[in-house]
Design brief:
Elements lengths: L11 H33 L3 H22 L7 H30 L3 H37 L4 H55 L6 H37 L3 E6 L4 E5 L7 E4 L2 E5 L3 H13 L6 E6 L4 H7 L6 E5 L3 H9 L1 H6 L9 E4 L3 H6 L8 E7 L14 H8 L2 E12 L5 H13 L3 E8 L21 E8 L2 H7 L3 H12 L21
Parallel strand pairs: 5-6, 5-8, 6-7, 8-9
Antiparallel strand pairs: 1-2, 2-3, 3-4, 9-11, 10-11
């Protein structure tokens, strides 16, 4: 019979298993914290590629710093590991709450939030990275304490458990924590699991290695962290409601997580109604008609328009403007999120605003990603006279593929020879490079284009979809591009007063390099200002 090592309550085999199980759980929690920061940074700041790169690179760098600092704790590896896990659980578990609170209550001060938000994310990334990096050297000492083995074998065991745990954490975040608990509660729950796993491993397996004072310090630290996390979990719903009121105002009527995105409706009539998607203003009742008329009218008046395709536009407002034109026989709406369409059908204020378009038998909805839908079989599908891209701003990373040369090439397959295509391309003045890149990309895809804009926006939300990279400039216009296969189609569309005045306004702010911009492609997106 194999005797337990001196000072340990279990056999070496059992002890090794328990240490590796602790590594597995802690690694899963660590990756959840990383993904939480990436998701939250993309949601609150935008441009997910940049934010993911910053968060992950800072965190990996900090892990190296943490590994070096952990060398000072090796003589008290058990106590050090317990304190590291308690600190990691507190910082990681509360990170989403702190960052969202800063966004909600400081975000209305545009320049202050823009200048401080990135530093706050970097600070949390660095702190979490340091604590994660300190784990492995301490665990190396602990696993050797259980059973002496060569260093290469111990490192292989630790990293195997660490990588498998990271896999589980990486899968748990999008498929379990985020949809079931949300970002705030999910982070708090992860912190609770983290501190319990670390405390159980230290007290259960290495409790005899702790001094009396060290034991009480560790108990106090774990109890304090659990109390903070539990208190935050109890109050998280009230906190979230208060934060939403700070962000969206006091008249929130609907706030739902659809499975695709967060959708918030505020106000109850045309003047006060606002539709937010993932914190970005998508519809304002006070000025939406100006936007949708500018998107729809030039393309509809340029020629035949019996069959119309709307990409995005689940709110039904673009479809409303389309149905104002006689001769429309079919309108196909390709919208990714069924939740937006459901609200557009059932919410009294939004359905009144869109004229109850979804009751019209000519309107047909398909829930699909626009890019994938265009790649599908089209042999049995008649081409469209008009295509309208009512999509999020191209500066949002998730939308970049919908403004690529490949996307426009796919779109050409479903357009008639004399068809027109109108695309929302973001604000012209504050994001000129992005706007004119859309125009260059359409021309590279074989279209003839007419850029135009409409001005005089009444309502601006500082964190809206058309915000600039630094979040400080407030756009006061919408930019569009009308495209067709032949110039005569654009000549016919020029009868629209919106297009005539808007085209002149857009040309006045064309940058000197506008004609020489390179197109944006899937493998080389060019929309970052």
């Amino acid at each position: 019979m194999i005797e337990p090592p001196e000072g340990l309550p279990v056999t070496p085999r059992t002890g090794r298993f328990l240490v590796l199980a602790g590594v597995f759980i802690c690694a899963a929690c660590g990756l959840v914290y990383e993904l939480e920061l990436v998701a939250l940074a993309s949601y609150l700041i935008g441009d997910s590629v940049t934010q993911a790169s910053v968060v992950l690179s800072v965190m990996v760098f900090a892990m190296g710093i943490g590994s070096l600092l952990a060398k000072r704790l090796r003589r008290r590896a058990a106590a050090g590991f317990g304190l590291v896990e308690a600190a990691l659980a507190l910082v990681g578990g509360c990170s989403a709450l702190v960052l969202y609170a800063a966004f909600a209550w400081a975000g209305d001060r545009g320049e202050m939030w823009a200048s401080s938000s990135r530093y706050l994310f970097v600070a949390f990334s660095f702190a979490i990275g340091v604590l994660i990096g300190a784990e492995v050297p301490l665990l190396m000492v602990l696993i050797q304490r259980v059973r002496r083995q060569d260093a290469s074998g111990a490192v292989a065991d630790l990293f195997a458990a660490d990588y498998v745990g990271a896999l589980v954490g990486g899968l748990a975040f999008p498929f379990l924590l985020l949809p079931w608990f949300g970002q705030l509660t999910g982070a708090l729950l992860t912190g609770a699991v983290n501190v319990l796993a670390g405390g159980a491993l230290v007290f259960g397996l290495f409790g005899r290695d702790l001094s009396g004072r060290g034991r009480w310090i560790l108990i106090l630290a774990n109890v304090t962290v659990l109390a903070v996390l539990a208190s935050a979990a109890v109050l998280v719903d009230d906190f979230e409601r208060a934060a939403r009121r700070a962000v969206y105002g006091s008249d929130i009527r609907v706030a739902v997580q659809t499975g695709v995105q967060e959708v918030v409706l505020t106000g109850g009539d045309r003047e006060s109604l606002h539709l937010f998607v993932d914190g970005r203003l998508r519809v304002s009742g006070r000025d939406e008609r100006r936007y949708h008329q500018a998107l729809v009218q030039p393309a509809m008046r340029g020629g035949p328009h019996a069959r119309v395709l709307i990409l995005g536009g689940g709110d039904g407002l673009a479809a409303r403007e389309v149905l104002r034109h006689s001769g429309v026989r079919r309108v196909d709406v390709v919208e990714l999120d069924p939740g937006v369409v459901k609200l557009a059908r059932t919410d009294p204020a939004l359905s009144e605003l869109n004229g109850h378009v979804y009751r019209d038998r000519r309107v047909h909805v398909t829930h699909a990603d626009a890019f994938r839908w265009l790649r599908g079989p089209h042999e049995r599908r008649r081409p469209y006279d008009v295509v309208l891209a009512d999509l999020p701003d191209p500066g949002i990373t998730a939308s970049t593929k919908l403004y690529s040369q490949e996307f426009y090439g796919l779109l050409a397959r479903v357009l008639t020879d004399d068809g027109r295509f109108a695309v929302h391309a973001g604000p012209v003045v504050t994001r000129a490079h992005t706007y004119w890149t859309v125009d260059a990309t359409l021309r590279a895809a074989g279209f003839v284009t007419t850029p135009y804009r409409t001005t005089g926006r009444h309502d601006v939300f500082a964190a809206g979809p058309d915000r600039t990279a630094d979040g400080t400039a407030k756009p006061r216009d919408w930019g569009f591009v009308l495209a067709a296969r032949a110039p005569e189609q654009l000549t016919a569309a020029a009868v629209s007063a919106v297009l005539r005045s808007g085209s002149r306004a857009a040309e006045r702010v064309r940058p000197p390099s506008g004609a020489g911009l390179a197109p944006s492609t899937l493998v080389h997106p060019r929309y970052a200002d």
